[in-house]
Amino acid sequence: MEKTTPKLVILFSGKRKCGKDFLSEALLNKLGTDRAQIIRISEPIKRHWAESMGLDLAELLSDSAYKEHYRKQMIEWSDDRRREDYGVFCRSACSTIERDICIVSDVRRKTDIRFFLETFGPERLRTVRIETSQDVRVSRGWRFESGIDDVQSECDLDDYDRWDLRLLNDGDVEVGEMLKRLYSIVEGMGSLT
């Protein structure tokens, strides 16, 4: 099978429990699976972790307590791998691209953005930061965990300021309005709409 080069790659970033997965899925539903797909940088990490530890991959990929139990260990292991090759997990995730529009739901590091810029170029790349107050994140089940919420995987993009779009997902703006703003990124690509 020939590798697909997407016409548009949309990178979603944000803290845990900000709604990245929810908004990525909503955008995918609006665009349609014939044109777009979601890839996750964390998927190759979780797949390796499941295989090496004899764990349930589906549970690791879900938003569950099972995943949270292993999160810190997966972060430490993946950080070691990234020190050897910063693009190792991005490259693996990209091997599954089959559509013109690729939504990456879990960008967490400046090196992730660097990889996608170098691989697809700035003309094909759009970056989205989902922001949510700590109180709303707590209401969605988040609680601060040392070694998880204060390390690079959660904090590296806190000072990044070149987002194409910032969305506040605190429940004050309806999902439809946020989708309209997200879709404007796609509309700006001309031949994709």
Walk me through what this model shows.
Keywords: ATP-binding, Cholesterol biosynthesis, Cholesterol metabolism, Cytoplasm, Kinase, Lipid biosynthesis, Lipid metabolism, Nucleotide-binding, Steroid biosynthesis, Steroid metabolism, Sterol biosynthesis, Sterol metabolism, Transferase. ATP binds at residues 15-21, 140. One of its GO terms (cellular component) is cytosol. By secondary structure, the chain is of the alpha/beta class. It has a single domain (8-188), classed as P-loop containing nucleotide triphosphate hydrolases (Rossmann fold, 3-Layer(aba) Sandwich). 47% of the residues lie in helices and 15% in strands. It is built from nine helices and five strands. The protein has helices spanning 20-31, 42-53, 57-61, 65-84, 88-94, 110-120, 134-139, 152-155, 175-187; strands spanning 8-14, 36-39, 101-107, 125-131, 165-168. A five-stranded parallel sheet has the order 2-3-1-4-5, sandwiched between helices. Helix 1 packs across helix 9. The longest helix has 20 residues, at 65-84. The protein is globular.
Q: What structural keywords apply?
A:
single chain; 193 residues; alpha/beta; Rossmann fold; 5-stranded parallel sheet; 9 helices; globular
**Beginning-to-end CA distance, first to last residue:** 26 Å
CATH class category? Alpha Beta
CATH superfamily: P-loop containing nucleotide triphosphate hydrolases
Which stretches of 5+ consecutive residues score pLDDT under 50? none
Mean pLDDT: 90
Shape: globular
Number of strands: 5
Give me the secondary-structure category: alpha/beta
Binned, the helix content reads: 40-55%
Question: What is the chain-wise order of helices and strands?
Answer: EHEHHHHEHEHHEH
Strand content: 15-25%
